[in-house]
Each structure stands twice: as structure tokens, then as C-alpha cells.
Amino acid sequence: MIRTPLRPLARILKAREQGQNPDAIEAENIRLRHEEDRDRARNRAEGRLLVMGIAFFCAFTVIGVRMGTLSGSVPEEPTAQASGSPIIGQRSDIVDRNGRVLATNLDTHSLYAQIPDMIDPAKAATDLAAIFPELDAEELLKDFTGERRFLWIRREISPEQMQAVHDIGDPGLLFGPREMRLYPNGSVAAHILGGATYGREGVSSAEVVGVAGVESFYDDFLRDPANEGAPLELSIDLTVQAASERVLQGGMMLMSAKGASSVLMDVHTGEIISMVSLPDFDPNDRPRVLTAADGAGDQSDSPLFNRAVQGVYELGSVFKIFTVAQAMDLGLINANTMIDTSGPLEWGRFRIRDFHNYGPALSAEDVIVKSSNIGTARIAMMIGGERQRAFLGTLGLLEETTVEMVEAPTGDPLLPANWSEISTMTISYGHGLSSSPVHLATAYSSLLNGGYRVEPTIIRQDGPQYGDRVVSEQVSTTSRNMLRAVVDHGTASFGDVDGYEVGGKTGTADKPRPTGGYYEDRTIATFASVFPASDPQYVLIVTLDEPTIETLGEERRTAGWTAVPVAAEMIRRVAPLLGMRPDVESLTPTGVTLTSN
Known about the structure:
It contains 17 helices and 18 strands. By secondary structure, it is an alpha+beta fold. The chain has 3 domains: 89-106 and 178-234, Penicillin-binding protein 2a (Domain 2), CATH 3.90.1310.10; 109-129 and 152-164, no CATH class; 240-286 and 300-578, DD-peptidase/beta-lactamase superfamily (Beta-lactamase, 3-Layer(aba) Sandwich). The protein is elongated and about 165 Å long. It is found in: Membrane.
């Protein structure tokens, strides 16, 4: 900036010529300069005041608008925001085929202690033990007065328990928000769902991870935020599952069995509509694995053991239909071919006998109806071991099942080390090869649905899921007719359910001893059924472990007296739930003349 000099030379010279005082010019210029500085300072101050006024106006306007918004909103308690990002987002729900919730999430709180902040550890320990009976006051006090600085007390607490802890009033007892996995139906479908627990934990959140069943198999899917909360839809029907469990539980108690299982499968899709294993458990309070210290010599005694998937048993005569069906498909026999049943059938030091003496010969159909071991073994000898093994492989009986559960690989079938001729004969009637009820349900579905291989699945499917053909349609139809005859006038007569045309095959197998040989008074009783036999829709497998019932003055252990009545009652209960109407033949009036008035 260029400033005007206080004593400009031109004006000084002019003033001297006119006889004026040059100092007056300097004084005037000084006065004018002061006035300019004053005006400039005033304008600067007025601008600052204007800016401050506008700022205060905006601030009070925002505050007023916020106060108006709060006065018109619903009052809510403030919630504390956890520092940092949560460990994991919400886990997806699991639903049945009709959208009914099987597993979901529930907001709850955890309880932990910041021990350095506690005021009265002794009182806190005593009061906590009163609220949570499973806690020990002395152990808590030892932890509170030791060297620890942090202690988890309960991973999950109810609102009532939270209030009771809050009333203790100790600042060292703190709560953390978290989600817990909730199974609203309790023990229903427990082995299918499996259960969940906590992985990584923090005071503000926790990671929920699956530990068994579909919760573990689909853990990545259920935890994936990209699914945007889409539920996992299973193939099971909740009402059918609950009814099956109730019937099987009653049958197990009535037959004094130590365990039981059932599998209901859609023969065209391989969908498992219900799968039950007893004894079971509540996944909301999943029990721990049994150890030797608990006196558990066999993990199959644990309620966590899934008998339907992990239970690998010799299933007995239910395998006979596979032998006869293969022989028919190979053109070796037909339903009316007479089979030599004279016995006993000897092979080396082994002797194969029938439960009754059926005479010198039976038709192939009667071999199934009367359940002849000798007749089935002779048919197996016609087939040969190599072809038998290949056929059972096409039915999925020689490999682990593909059902979507982490337990599936543990149910790997037990095969003979050497598939000899005697193995071929014994396997033909269900001994010498062990498989699970899910294996059996898959094989029966593949054989009886028209002859197409299906794969077992716990996920809902859309329409039939046919694989390769395993037998011709004619052989499939003939096999269904044979199984219907077994129920109509054979070993499974107690399995007939009016209106549902049940077909099936019984199987009673002695349980093997751990040291070799077989028990004489312990059996696995199985009934493999299909309904309706003329137009198959579902296969039902019912297995009882060591059943026995006193009837007609005798102790009975065979499947015809134990597993068959239980399966019949189950079909009677669940068929209407599946939307199946009983096919009851209407009576045509005879000897009646219709007239009109």
C-alpha cells in the first residue's frame, strides 16, 4: 500500500510562497490518517460482530429444531455403544420346509467381573451364588480375591437374572450385550440342528459358531453377511418331526429298547422329511461329550450320538429285497421262480438256517414274504459276489452318505475285508455288512421309486432329483408288490395301516459282541416300509436297539413284534400331516332297488 507523505513537497513550497505555516499541512494530514484508521477498525469490528451473530443464530436454530424433534418422539432409554467393530454379524435363521423357525437369534447379555473395581467381593460372591445355583460362592470368592483382573461369570443371562445382579450394586459386576442361539422347539430335531456355541468373545459381542449337525455343516453360510439374513431352509417338516419323535419315544419305552431311530424320506427327491434319534437332548443346553470318567464305555450310549446317521448296524433281513431285485433285473429269476430252501445250507464250518422250516422250495416272492435266509443265500450264489458288490454300490450302501451333516462321514459302512462266497451269502440277508438307517432309506427309495438313484438331503428340493437308473421299472414295481405281500400276509402283518397300502420288510439282527461273536439276547430290530406301495411317495425306516416285549406268554425281540407296530403307528399319525388322504374302498349297495314316490 502506498501512503501519502505527511509533508508533501509541492504543498510545502506553495505554502511558503503564500506565507503560510507548513506545520499546519502536516497536522492536517496526520488527522486525516487517524480518521481513516479509525473507520477501517470500525468496519472490521462490525464485520466480526455480524459473523458471530450469524453463527449464534444458526446454532440456536439447530438446537431449537433438535429440541422440537425430541419433544415429538417416543421416549427411549439410552443405549451404550460398544467401542470398536462387533466380532460378527447376526447368524441366519434355520427354518423347516414350510418356513417355521427351527433356530434363531435372541438378544441377551453376558455377565463378567472387573475384579479391581469390586467393592465387596465376599458379598458379591454370596449373592451371585444365590442367583445362579450352579456357581460356588467359595470358588467365586477365591477368584475375586486372587490375582485375576477379569472373570467371565455367565455367558448368557435372562432379564430377570440381569436385574437381580444389578440389585447387588457392585460396580465391578458388568454386563455385555450379545446374541445367543435359540432353539424355540426344544429337543425337536435336536440331532439335525446339532447346536451352537461361542467362539471368539469380547465384552461387547461374541462369535456364534455351529458345533454339530447342519449348524456346523452350514456354518459359513449362516455367518455370511452377503446372504443378507436369508434363512437356511431344511427339508424336514416340523409337525411331522414332532409327531415322529412322540410316537418313537412311546414305542421305545413300550418295547423297553435302549435306543431308537427313524428316517422318513421322499422317494423321488431324497428329501429327509423327518429324522429321529433317541435318546436326544435340548440344543439350548447341549450336554458335554461322555468320557471314561463318566462310566461311558460306548459313545453310542450318549444322547449326542445320532443313531440315524452315525449308527452303523447289521440290519438283517431288510437287505433280502435287494438280492431278489438284482436277480430279477439280471433275468436270473422272476417272482414265481422256485428257490431251493432245504436246509441247513452248509458252507465249510458255517451253517445257514431259517427261523422256521419252509419246506424244500419257495417261490422268489415267498422267499421275501416268509423271510427265508436259505432261499436268499441261494439267490445270492446265482448272482455272485462281484456283481452283488457292484449293485449294492449303486444303491449307495458301500460309501458314506451325502446328507449335509458333519456327522455323515462318521457313518461309513463296515464292509468285509474279503468279499468271499460266504460273505456274499450272509450279506444277502443283512449280515456281514453294516450300514446306517439313512443308507437303508436311500437304497429303498432308489429301488422303489421306479428304479432311479436318489441322494439323501436335508435341504428342501424342487421336484424329483433322479440320478442313474439302478433297476428297471418292472423290477421296481415287482419289488413293491413283494413288500406289500409281506405286510398283507407275511412277517410284517402288524404294519398294515388302513387306507395307506403299506409295504415293507422286517429285519432282526443279533448284535455283535466287542470280543467277537454275537449276543443271543440283544438284537437290532428294523422295519423298512414304503407307502403307498402302488404309487410310492415315502420310505420310512424304524430301528429299535435291543427291544423286548412280553406277549402271548413269550418274550419277543423280532422286528415283526417290536419295530413293525411302532412304524405302523407312525404312518397312521404322520400320513395325514403329509397331506395324504386314506384310500378307503367304498361299499357298493347290493340288493337295493331305488324307487321314487
